[in-house]
Each structure stands twice: as C-alpha cells, then as structure tokens.
C-alpha cells in the first residue's frame, strides 16, 4: 500500500514538473509587435468562444443556483460556510508560501490554521484574529510560479473556470494536488473542502449578483471587460498596490472574517 501511494505521488510530481516546463516554453514565446500595456491575447478568437460557453453555463445554471442558494440560506450560515471553506484552503497556502521561500508567512498561516481548526471548530469561528495573530497570506501555485520567474504568458479563458493566463492555468491544475488535507483525510471526508468551496462560490454569485451581471450581461463587450478586470485583480495579487487599495469587483460581498 505504501509503495502504491509513493508511485502515485511520483507520477503526479512528474506530471507537475512536465507542465511547468511546457508552461515556461509557451510563456516565453514570441511577443514581437505586441503593444506595451495591452493584454497579450493571441488566442482571443478561441477565448471568446469559451467566454460565450461560460456565459451560457452561468445563465442557465450558476446564476439561478447562486441566487436560489443565497435566498434559501441565512446570511449568518453563508458567512460560516465561507469561513470554513477558507480555513480548509490555508494548508495549500502554507505549502505555496514555503515553495516561494516565504517561511514567515507559511509558519503564521500554519499557526492560524491550527488555532481556528481546534478552538474555532474547524474554522467556523475566528479565534486567531481575537488573539491578534497575523492575517493569512493567501498563496496559490500560480503565485509560486511567478515567484520562480515563470513568465505570465498569454491570456486564456478556461471552460467553467473562467479568466486565467498560461502560467495560472498550470497553477490551477497543480493546486489540485498541493493541499495536504487531500492526502491525510480519508474518503469521503477529503471532499468536504470541495463541497464547502462550491457552496461559498455559489453564495458569492448570489449575493454579488448585480456586479457579476453588470460585467457579463450589461457591458458592451463582456469578454474585454472580464479580461481587463481579472488581469488587474491578478496583478494586484502578485505585486500589491503602489497606492490606494485595489477594489476587487469579484470579491465577496461579506466582510472579511479576518478584518480587525
């Protein structure tokens, strides 16, 4: 059993390393003649087709499900589910902060996860903030690749997952394997985090419906609007602000549970 476990994880590691190599080669491709400051979108025609597919899924399924969920579930419960989901994502941030060399952030996130998981009943409550522990330093594998110097590459829109770049598309895939909880929890408990994440996203879609609808259905060019907003958001996540705080139109309508 132990040998089989090791073989499976070795196969995953080889696949991840291969994807990183391919991403680096693709992202370093030619950009001759590309205007400075403009989105690098050589796959725009294909991206727009995927965008229309994503809009059709949102219109038929995600939007009504989000509104229904938000209407049926009390606000306090939605907030608890959001906290619970976020807490289960922290171990992944611990791993990525460590991979980026940010051991301070990794250690602080680990302490917060332990405190909120134990005293905070799995993350439903936030005693870590009451103890004045540092706010979490969220990190995904796309950020790790950025820290390692992998170029961003072209803008892409992924089916169901939405806006991304070549680098972040690989990061999203690798993130499927970098949460330690998926290796230590048995089935079906290992899927609780996924269910909580889906519930949290449905909640955001319902409660933040006006903003999402204005981007997807009210703008003259929803593809260009979504692309611009997402690239701004990602740039802020990777580099931080040089001045005023960035107002994220995709952010949750709820108060940040870690705001003091």
Helix fraction bin: 55-70%
Order of helices and strands: HHHHHHEEHHHHH
Please work out how many helical segments DSSP would assign: 11
Give the end-to-end Cα distance, rounded to a whole number of Å.
Answer: 47 Å
Number of domains: 1
> Which radius of gyration do the C-alpha atoms yield?
19 Å
Give a short account of the largest sheet: 2 strands, antiparallel
Structural class: mainly alpha
The pLDDT mean sits at 83
Form type: globular
Report the uncertain regions.
Answer: 241-260
Strand content: under 5%
Strand order of the largest sheet: 1-2
In total, the number of strands is 2
What does this structure look like?
The longest helix is centred in the first third of the chain and has 29 residues, at 44-72. The protein has 260 residues and is mainly alpha-helical. A two-stranded antiparallel ribbon has the order 1-2. The protein has helices at residues 2-27, 44-72, 75-99, 103-118, 127-130, 141-147, 166-174, 181-184, 192-207, 209-218, 222-239, and strands at residues 155-158, 162-165. It starts with a helix and ends in a 21-residue tail after the last helix. 63% of the residues lie in helices and 3% in strands. The chain has one domain. Residues 241-260 have low confidence and may be disordered. The protein is built from eleven helices and two strands, in the order ααααααββααααα.
